[in-house]
Design goal:
10-stranded mixed beta sheet; UDP-N-acetylmuramoyl-L-alanine:D-glutamate ligase; about 300 residues
């Protein structure tokens, strides 16, 4: 089973606009509402490939109920920690050039009891060999060590832990030694340069991470692992529709590949095809398998070692 953890989910409300100009009236057209948050985005992609997936979420209020209902309709089982406050709404506005502007709410306050109930059920269910993807921001008031503590408990049960977050939660999470990490250039503190990404990837491996993909947006990505593999991938040229969730699709693709026993080079290639397909998909819905298959033929992996 592949589990995803989203402690600060959202209802993703996507719009399109000709232009987005600060200080001016911007005319927008709504496209769709999707259950969102990085872990939920990962779960949606995995479900599209018929992988056994369960989404662990903290949700509350009418928005939280709507998200739970959407996940149920998509056939994604859940482990839920119930909050008292309403789950947040995040707005995504994409202009005619494919540039997405995000307006993200902070989210409801962290509730320790709800988190513990969700985590306890997760720990009771996982078995050796499962994957757990822990990703996204944490709710206001949550401790910065929360991801690191969860990774430690899951690692002790033989679970392959995947980490995709930023800031202090990323730093604390890395100290626990996740199996996989997927920072983007900004989170890694580098420019969108292959050379800098290779150097940064080496540092992640030296800190105890088994494998890492550093995503560089349209410039591609770098893969490095503790077994000495180093690979790069150039970005596939597309006309983006919405770039929100592309990194989550990369994480989902890699998790899918590792769960299915693919060689790391094939898992990396599949991950990059998923990220590219997500860029040409409306809102934060999962890209179709047909779109992923299309770009799988175009992704080129360069194996350096």
């Amino acid at each position: 089973m592949i589990y995803t953890v989203t402690l600060n989910p959202a209802l993703d409300r996507s719009f399109i606009a000709d232009t987005v100009t600060a200080g001016a009236v911007n005319r927008i057209t709504p496209i769709r509402d999707d259950p969102g948050g990085k872990g939920i985005n990962v779960a949606k992609v995995l479900k599209g490939f018929d992988k056994p997936v369960c989404a662990c979420v903290l949700v509350g209020g009418s928005i939280g109920l709507a998200i739970a209902s959407m996940l149920d309709k998509e056939g994604i089982p859940t482990i839920i920690g119930e909050l008292k406050e309403n789950t947040r709404i995040n707005s995504k506005i994409t202009d005619r050039d494919g540039v997405t502007t995000e307006l993200n709410e902070a989210g409801p306050a962290f509730r320790q009891g709800a988190y513990e109930a969700m985590k306890e059920e997760l720990l009771e269910r996982v078995v050796d060999g499962d994957i757990c993807v822990i990703s996204g921001s944490v709710p206001p008031g949550a401790p910065e060590t929360i991801y690191g503590e969860m990774i430690t408990e899951l690692n002790a049960r033989g679970v392959k832990t995947f980490l995709d977050t930023s800031g202090a939660c990323l730093e604390n999470g890395l100290e626990a030694g996740p199996y996989f990490a997927k920072p983007n250039a900004s989170e890694a503190g580098i420019s969108e340069s292959i050379e800098e990404a290779v150097s940064a990837a080496d540092k992640y491996i030296s800190r105890g991470v088994h494998s890492v993909i550093i995503s560089l947006g349209s410039y591609g990505a770098v893969y490095r692992d503790a077994d000495g593999r180093l690979m790069t991938c150039a970005g596939v040229k597309v006309n983006p529709v919405c770039t929100t969730g592309c990194g989550d699709a990369v994480t989902a693709g890699f998790a899918s590949g590792i769960y299915s026993g693919l060689d790391p080079s094939e898992a990396f290639r599949f991950a990059m095809a998923c990220g590219t397909a997500a860029a040409v998909t409306d809102g934060t819905q999962a890209p179709s398998t047909a779109t992923v298959d299309k770009y799988l033929q175009e992704v080129q992996i360069n194996i350096l070692s």
